[in-house]
Structure formats: C-alpha cells, structure tokens
Amino acid sequence: MTSVHAQADMADLPLEQLMQLQVTTASRYAQTALEAPATVSVVTADDIRLFGYRNLSEVLGSMRGLHVSYDRTYHYLGTRGFATPGDYNTRVLLLVNGVRFNDNLYDQATIGTDFPIDLDLVDRVEFVPGPGSAVYGANAFFGVINVITRNGRQLAGPQVSAEAGSHGSAKLRFSLGTVDAHGGDWLIAVTRATTRGADQYYPSYDTPSTHNGVAQGLDFDRSTQLFARMHQNGLTLTLAHGERNKGMPTAAYSQVFNDPRSRLTDTTTRLAAEYTTQVRPSLALTGRVHAGRYEYVGDYVYDYPPLTVNRDVGTGQWWATEWQWVSTALARHKLSWGVDYRRDTRIDQLNFDLEPRTDNLDARRTGDALGIFVQDEFALRPDLTLHAGLRWGRQSGSKGSVNPRLGLVYWWNPTTAIKVLHGTAYRPPNAYERDYRVDTPGGVVDTVALRSERVRTTELALEHAPTGASRMLLTVFRSNVTNLISLGHAHQPDRFTFTNAGRVHMQGLEAAVDHRLDGGARVRAVYGRQKLRDTVADTGLTHSPEHLLKLQWSDSVRSPAGLGWQSGRYAVEVIGVGSRRTLQHARLPANIRTNLTYSARIADVDVSVGVYNLFNRRNADPASYEIREDSIAQDGRTYRVKLTYAF
Fold it and tell me: Global pTM?
C-alpha cells in the first residue's frame, strides 16, 4: 500500500501514477489496477474529503455499478441493479484491511452509521465487482468491498474534528497518531455522533388516531466508535468497536405507530492480529487471527392487547484464522494458496414480550466454516497473463462448494488492456434465514429447506489511458443466479417465508471516463445500464434500476484577497438512479441528487462545507415487506460544516 509520503495529494498526481497505485482486493495480494483480474474501483481519502462523504454508504453510492437505498433504519446496497427486499447486504463481502467484517448471524455488511469506523480514518475503499468466492468464499457473491484504514504516520500527532449539520446532527472526533522510538506505528481514535432527525410523514398512517401519519422524534441516530491500530515489524493489531442507537419511525413489522419506545441498537466489536513475513526471497507468508461479536436488540411496540414491547435479540460471536502463502519461485508464475477457518461459537436469536414475559423464539446454534484455495498468475507472454483460481469451501448446515475463477489480461499496447473474466460464487443460507420463526401478531418468518445460492458471471472489459491525464473503461457482463433465497408472501396474511424461489438473469454494460485538465480540474463520468429478469416468474425485479449515472467535477479556487486563506477546492457530484418498481407494482420515477462541497485551509484549520441534495429534489426508495408504506421518502436539502485541527 502506498504511503502518505508517496501519494501526498492524490488530486495532483498524473493519471499514469494513479493507474500504478496498488490494489490488494482482487487477488489478496498487491498488484496494479491494470494487472488485476477485475475492474477495480477505488475511492481515496482525498476523494472522501473532497466530496464530503459522511458515511460508507455515500462512498459506495459514488462507485461504479453500486446504488444505495435507505429505509430510515439501515442502508442497503444494490450491485449492478440487483437489490432484493429483505436482504441485509448479504451478497457482498465487506472486508476491513482484508479481514471479513460480515457477521455470522445475518451475514450483513454494515455500510451506514452502524459501520464502526470513522471515514476520517479510511485511506481508501476498493470495490471488486463480480463473483469472488474463488478467492474469499461465501458472501463474495456480487462483489467484494475492502476498507483500508490509515496509519499513525498519516494522522501524525493529535487531531480534533467537529461538525454540525441539518436535523440536529453533530459529530466530534479525537485521534492520536504517532511513531515511537522503535518504529512502531500507533493510531487511536474516538468518535461520537448524534442526529436528532426530522419528523417523518407516512401517508398510510394519516388518521387522527395515528398522529395524522407523523412520526415525531423517532428518526434519531446516536453512535459511538473506538478504533485503534498498531503496526511494528510485520505485526499489526487492530481494534474496532461501535455502538449505535436508532429510532424506527416507520413502525416496521406492524407496530403501534409513533410510539417512542420503538428503537434498535447495534453493537459490534472486532479484534484482529496480522503477521506478514518474507520466509525467503521468493516466498511470503501472511497469517491472521481475528475475532468478533455482534449484537442486535430491537424493541417493537404492539397492541395485542395489552400494549406491550416485543424484544428481538440477535447475538453472534466467532473467531477465525487465515493463512496465505505467495510464491514467485517458478519462472513466469505467481502462485498463492492458503486456508481460512472460522469457528462460530455463538449464534443466538431470541424473541420475547417484556410485560408479561412471553417467549416466542429461542434458537441457538454453533458451527464452523472452512475454505482452501489456490490461484496462479501465469505470464504466458510479456503482453498476456492468465489468472486461474479454485476454492473449496464448506459451512455448517450446507454442502461443500467448489468455485473457479479465470481471467485473461492482454496488453494491446502500453496504454490499453483487455480483460476476459469468468467466475462463480455461492452464498449458503444464514442463521436468520434458517432459524427465525416467531409467532407474533406482527408476522411470522418461516423457513423451508434452503439450498445455497449460486451465480456464474462472464465479463469483458477494455481499459484505455490514451494520455497521462485520461482513463477510459468499458465493460460488459452477463450473470445467471440460481437458487435465489428471497423473502416473499406465503398463503397466510402477515406471513413471510424464505425460499429458493427465483432464478435471475442479469446483463449490462458500464462505461467510465476520468479526465484531468490543466490547472488541477478533474471530471469523471460513469454510466451503467443493466437489465435483470426473474426467469421463473418471467418478470423484472423490484428495487432494480435500469440506469445508473455518476458525474463528478472538482477544481481549485483562489482564496479571497487579503484574508490569508490557502487555495480551496470545490466539488460537484451528481448521482442519478433510474426508475424502480416497488413491491406493490408501482414505479418510482428516476431521481437525480446533486451535492456541492467546498474545502479549504483557514488559519491552520481544515474547513469543509457541504450542501447535499442541492436542488431539494424529492425522491424515495422502495420499501421492503415489513413496512406498510410502498416507498420511503428521503431527505431534502441538508447541510454540514466540518472543522479539523491538527496540533
């Protein structure tokens, strides 16, 4: 990974250097973006600062092939148009510094305020689209996200950051980065964020008995984050802890509307130790041991009668180890192989009414997961490289699965690369999909015998850099999903059932242009078109936009005369999402969201001012089964001011 001294200000590097920046996610070892058997997207720390991203979901929403929706509780990620209702981001694998971050209960990838790491501590986010099970195993179904954090050198000394914004939002971070006398790199940071939230209006509840459809003071969001990282002599230790308390204004799962007791908490803790060493000049070893705990507590208010609070508790706990060897001993070959093992020591799901105490669910299980993989990067010719990989994996309760990956990278000339990619992936049903069966008036989630989902994808990509200031990408893909696990209505009212109900065909194209003008200005345009169809029902999919558009423009601006400001930068981002079909077969219109950010350094203080949804456009996201509304309105124009001071 490139150090801060090598990358300094990413915006000022020529594109030739940017294209040589290393990525680690595609093959689990460092290689350039052009060498990787994938079309990798990268958002850097400079991009995060420049465009004023406030959480991981906004970072991902800016990336090629991804779109984000929000139901006022969680953020959900769509990949190349695929976004099924009731899915907690289980079909993408989330890594932090290469370590799996999906929990062992819901298999969810947390990307909103429940993600426990402050974006100020992130060096870069890499996204590799397409099946990644040949490298990473389960959940690397439609892609892999790797959040790579910064180190103490990059945040040298103590630093304080404070911000305030619309709807009573405020955030305070303190961090300390240092390098000790023995070369040890240390970073520790604490962040506290809170949002009062605006009152939310829901037409389905617009009656006098339900507060005329207004949920008052229930969109609050409060979170605390702790992050620590140490690196010395090949050993890296990491701690990430996050706690979030969130109101539920939507009265999900048929709750009493506008009751202040309706809320949830997410608590996550992750520990990781990594050791890397050069066993000999041609052989490198990376070993990891990591552990995690995730707990969800939701309070749902029902009037059975009597009026009572139903508590839903999910607890997951696990430890894991990973070992990988990379060898260059054979001429023209770069071989890597390894083994991953995870022990699920606790997967508990409880549901009970508080007063009077009535138990509805007590499901407890343990298990494990094992994977063995091998891959080879074979230089057939100086201009042609074959990437071949194979992984066998097994998880408790599911059959073993073998997943291959093939990639052919051909350098037509020094500025043009053609990639032919093919791979498969699988996703076994998680504990929530297997075990959650609660008999309450709010509904029943039932489960039939479930099989693992499978996907097969073929992709053809062309990457071209005609000058040192331009980069172009064109890729076409085709995917077939079988045994799709989906949440749908059963025969009884208010009853949900997980089944292997669907087979989905996906095809599309993506195009991207990145150009830097003289003087430091930069323009970036990304367009994606995808068509998805359920081949069993012979219909299109809900939540799935056909078109995705991302436009970015940034430039420097001179400081006002006589005020002593250093030159600042402004950035404009436009995100367009095509129309989407809802569960009630309505069609939400396409929406365009424009964000404007200005950042500068004033008297040793870094200042950032952001206006989000600049033109106050009304837009909404499709709702899932558990919400009475067919769609959920999103925020109008909002503001944020952020100040950062380094001592």
Answer: 0.94
